[in-house]
Amino acid sequence: MSIKDKLNDWIQNNEQRYIDFLQKLVQQPSTQGNEKGVQQLVANFLHELGLKVEMWDLDGDRLKKHPYFYSNRETFESSPNVVGVLKGTGGGKSIILNGHVDVVPEGDHKQWDHGPYSGKVIDGKMFGRGATDMKGGNIALLMAIEAIQALHIRLKGDVIFQSVVEEESGGAGTLDTILQGYKADAAIIPEPTNMKIFPKQQGSKWFRIIVTGRTAHGGTPYLGVSAIDKAFIVNEHVKELEKTRNDRITDPLYDTIPVPVPINIGSMNGGDWPSSVPDVVQLEGRIGIAPGETMEEVQQEMEDWIKTLSEIDPWFQEHPVKVEWFGARWVPGEIETDHPFVASLVNNFVSVMGEKPTLVASPWGTDGGLLSQVAETPTVVFGPGITDLAHFPNEAIELEKIFEAAKIIAATIVEWCEED
Amino acid sequence: MSIKDKLNDWIQNNEQRYIDFLQKLVQQPSTQGNEKGVQQLVANFLHELGLKVEMWDLDGDRLKKHPYFYSNRETFESSPNVVGVLKGTGGGKSIILNGHVDVVPEGDHKQWDHGPYSGKVIDGKMFGRGATDMKGGNIALLMAIEAIQALHIRLKGDVIFQSVVEEESGGAGTLDTILQGYKADAAIIPEPTNMKIFPKQQGSKWFRIIVTGRTAHGGTPYLGVSAIDKAFIVNEHVKELEKTRNDRITDPLYDTIPVPVPINIGSMNGGDWPSSVPDVVQLEGRIGIAPGETMEEVQQEMEDWIKTLSEIDPWFQEHPVKVEWFGARWVPGEIETDHPFVASLVNNFVSVMGEKPTLVASPWGTDGGLLSQVAETPTVVFGPGITDLAHFPNEAIELEKIFEAAKIIAATIVEWCEED
User: Fold this and answer.
1) Which of A213, A417, B119, B122 could form a disulfide with A157 if both were Cys (CB 3.0 to 4.6 A apart)?
2) How much is the pTM?
3) Residues A304 and A338 in one domain
4) A7 Cβ contact partners less than 8 Å away, ≥ 6 residues apart
5) Which residue numbers of B have CB closer than 8 Å to A's CBs?
6) Chain A interface, mutation test: which of B259, B264, B280, most A Cβ atoms within 10 Å?
7) Are A29 and A165 contained in the same domain?
């Protein structure tokens, strides 16, 4: 029997234990600030697996000095990362297996059929906040590691399992693993991709645009200048920038994606009195950042483009539109599509699933960007969760997919890190 | 000496008494709900003049049954109207002299050089909230009445002086004088017109427009439909309606007015998350109503026009744009430009001022609309206050203009009501 067949067998024979453990993890709420409980479960599990375990509260002092740090908080008491290392024998390529345990708020409880942390299993699906995004994915990683341990497979390269916090809040967890010293030759993050393989992941940054008008009484609006009318000109101008930025993208990985790096205006608020001409409008949105771009060059491009508004409308010369940057950034991530690690993952996918995987660029960011750009660890995003259910009520994951992902990942780890 | 010369003389010799009384009125704050104090001063003054005085708290029960009632309150304890009548001998045309005593809030006290209710006189100007809008105008009316009394001029028609509340809040004061039974053959309201004569006054009504989109994640906005983009289309569509409505207006009274009946979008609010496609946008604004139009036909025209959006964009077929009506209405007012009352006012203006008056359509509403449409009392708006200072800090009025207005109005009353 090949190693891969043995791994598959082992995984198949240990499904129930992992369903039970996933249920425990899902039933342990872990919104921002409340991660300690679930991380303790993970740390104990890793201990049992015989990994070298490290658990530490994120270090706000060192984080806030880093240009890529973002969070809505600066101290992280009782919000720990957990890292478990399966040391290699040496001379092999290392791998990071990264998954977050923090979950987004559960929202309106009345919209959950079974309560937000039920962990209930119905028809092969497990329900609960975090099941798909992304505790189910983390389970796939742990199954892969235990399968390797159980089969006494000794690898040359290190296997570094990272259970992080703060992914939903800006990436401080993964960033602090990097500041703690962890990097590797490749990484997988099993975010909910519907089993698609994302060699590239879009980054993003939030912006605020402020448009100024001049007030007047609503009975004589021609004495004023409507900031709403001007904001629509700005809206159109931003659409042109989106077109320019996207016309540049030729990578076939984006062939099925209408707009690889969109610019979304998410909100527009201006004026406060029906009988007055509005004199200020604020737009807030998100600009997509392509792999290979830096945040700084994208910000500069947008600011320069906004300045050209004065050529379109003289009002903007005396009343320049302001651009501000705020909120979380998502660093774009990438690994070359023909990278040997990707090739290995793809082959193993075909073996396990009996069909080719879909390789596509991801429209949303993950901590993969930080691993790619800051830790210089090429990262692929691939996982069993159901993308469209993430962040919604009645979030769920198909258990079968977790086991398929575990098999694919286990085989890929063994190939990458090389048997001794 | 002609009657008019005598009236002018009397007014000139009694300026200080009226400056003093105006100061008392201005120094008596009279924001909404706090009008009793100033109305008591007015009622006493009318008693002294020998008029038949009526003072009553507005009747919320009868008001709320009236389709033209609007206020942010339904009960009016301690908020009285005051009416003083100089009975005519009979067989003459009557006149209503209407002025409000309620004032808008004073705003940020720090922006007032002398405090919002100072009544201070500097270089021929009196400062204070209400001085220009419109206690100074009311003083001109009272001077005219007392001049007529003092000169023992007996008139055939009734002179009905109305000191009302709630003008700034929707007109319930004047409406309740109508429900109390008061109407006349003509009326003057000395709102602050900079001594211009407004034979027509714009009405208005507030509307709310709700535009629907479809949400999606900001990384894949093409899966959604931006309610902001759709609101832009609606904005342009509303501008077309404004053009259509204004192209109809040919009255030379509007020759100097760029847009006689504007449609102002005063506020726009939509979306709440930079990383989401906005799925609802709310616009609020004010539509101008021309004299001769009813509120109902204007509302119908706008609703019908909004429905035609489905011809422009199929999205609106499945997701119709909603129009709602809310807030205060201002009924448009008018008197024919060649009405004998206007002719008399114009002649007297020329006599007193030595130059022709400016006749123009007013861009804002007054209680003149209610008098015109509900009481069938043709109304002209003409007064000594400074339009641009109304509602602002450091509101002020030129005292000289009050006396000029008093002379013009006194002569007009005598001509209209006819000496016995």
Assistant:
1) A417
2) 0.84
3) no
4) A144, A147, A148, A151, A407, A410, A411, A414
5) 202, 204, 206-207, 217-222, 226, 228-229, 231-232, 235, 258-259, 262, 264-278, 281, 284-286, 288, 327, 363-365
6) B264
7) yes
